[in-house]
Design a protein that fits this description.
The protein is built from no helices and eight strands. It is mainly β.
Length: about 110
C-alpha cells in the first residue's frame, strides 16, 4: 500500500499596491507596481472612467495618467485560483499645475 498526501491548504491571495507619488498633476504619468502581491491575476481600477486593467504579471509596473483634477481611489483586486480575493487601495490627488512662467531677459550693451 502507498500513501498519498494531498495539499489542501492554498495560500490566500495578497494585494499590495505601490505608487511613485500620491500627488500628481493632470497628464502626469504615475507608476503603479505590485511587489508582494500573490494570486492568479489582478484587476486594477483607476475610477477615472477608464476601463479596469487586468494584471497577469505582478512583476511588471503599470503607468497611468489622469485626465482631470480630483481625488481618485485606485484599487488593486487580486484573485486566487480558488476565486478568493484581496484588495489594496491608494488615493491619488490630481491637480492642475499652474502654468509655468517664462522669463525673458534682455541684454543690452552700454
Amino acid at each position: 500500500s502507498s500513501l498519498v498526501y494531498l495539499n489542501l491548504y492554498h495560500a490566500p491571495p495578497s494585494a499590495v499596491l505601490h505608487v511613485d507619488s500620491a500627488f500628481v498633476d493632470v497628464g502626469e504619468r504615475v507608476r503603479f507596481w505590485f511587489t508582494g502581491s500573490v494570486g492568479a491575476y489582478g484587476i486594477l481600477y483607476f475610477h477615472d472612467g477608464t476601463p479596469p486593467l487586468r494584471i497577469n504579471n505582478f512583476n511588471n509596473p503599470v503607468y497611468h495618467a489622469f485626465g482631470h483634477p480630483g481625488r481618485y481611489l485606485v484599487t488593486l483586486r487580486v484573485v486566487s485560483a480558488e476565486n478568493l480575493d484581496a484588495i489594496d487601495t491608494v488615493e491619488i490627488t490630481v491637480s492642475n499645475s499652474p502654468p509655468q512662467r517664462r522669463t525673458l531677459y534682455r541684454c543690452s550693451r552700454y
